[in-house]
Amino acid sequence: MADYGVSAGQFVAVIWDKSSPAEALKDLVEKLRTFTGDEGQVSVENISQLLQSAHKESSFDVILSGVIPGSTTLHSAEILAEMARILRPGGCLFLKEPVETAVVNNSKVRTTSKLCSALTLSGLVEVKELLREPLSPEEVQSVQEHLGYQSDSLLSVRITGKKPNFEVGSSSQLKLSIAKKSSPPVKPAVDPAAAKLWTLSANDMEDESVHLWPRRRTGKREVKGTGELPAQVGLWKLLPGRCLPLCQLPLPWDAGLQTWGAGAPERQQSQ
């Protein structure tokens, strides 16, 4: 039983068909029950009734099919899919089946590669061949009687496959390495005192002594193609006999801003 990975406490299913000798089947089941113990379980199922069985999915740790000495069981795609369904995630299937070594068209007996492909299509992984050996005289006779097939190029092959560690339809979150987007630059907080300084109240706007005049900036760099220097806007308060500058604001270049307003204070025009 160590060849099948059976241990104490496991649930094992043994699949048989009409080609399986009854005594050999009974002997195999007794040996399996010795290995699994009281906490385990060994179920015996005829392959022709497997699709109608009431086994829930993920019921067995190990499934053995066609491994009974003298059996010549063939496994259809539906049977393989059902075995994969009732296997627990991580469980193993061990099967034995006669295979053709020659290329025969429309043969009911598959080649080893086609049998491995059928196991893979049923949803099993890590499918591999364990043993290949000639058919015994009893098995050759069984193929002829139960399968109605005769060939001199038949072998018996043992293959195993494993159910993935997840159920069909289950989901799992994938951990993807994605660079985090850079955070947008945070605007600096406005100093309340500065905001108050640069804010005009309604009273200021109605004050006729407060005026906006453009002002030439000193410097050697002229605006290209104009001969003019960049400008600023000055906020001035007219007092008796003098102009009091309140603040100066830079202006972007605009040809329309190059005409200096008439009536600007002489002190402002000279700068």
TrEMBL record:
Keywords: 2Fe-2S, 4Fe-4S, Acetylation, Apoptosis, Cytoplasm, Iron, Iron-sulfur, Metal-binding, Mitochondrion, Nucleus, Phosphoprotein. Residues 9-171 form the Anamorsin N-terminal domain. Component of the cytosolic iron-sulfur (Fe-S) protein assembly (CIA) machinery required for the maturation of extramitochondrial Fe-S proteins. Part of an electron transfer chain functioning in an early step of cytosolic Fe-S biogenesis, facilitating the de novo assembly of a [4Fe-4S] cluster on the scaffold complex NUBP1-NUBP2. Electrons are transferred to CIAPIN1 from NADPH via the FAD- and FMN-containing protein NDOR1. CDD domains: AdoMet_MTases. The gene is CIAPIN1. InterPro entries: Anamorsin, Anamorsin_N_metazoan, SAM-dependent_MTases_sf. It holds the Pfam family Anamorsin_N. SUPFAM superfamilies: S-adenosyl-L-methionine-dependent methyltransferases (SSF53335). One of its GO terms (cellular component) is cytoplasm. GO terms for biological process: apoptotic process; iron-sulfur cluster assembly. It comes from the Eukaryota. GO terms for molecular function: 2 iron, 2 sulfur cluster binding; 4 iron, 4 sulfur cluster binding; metal ion binding. This is Cytokine induced apoptosis inhibitor 1. PANTHER family: ANAMORSIN (PTHR13273:SF14).
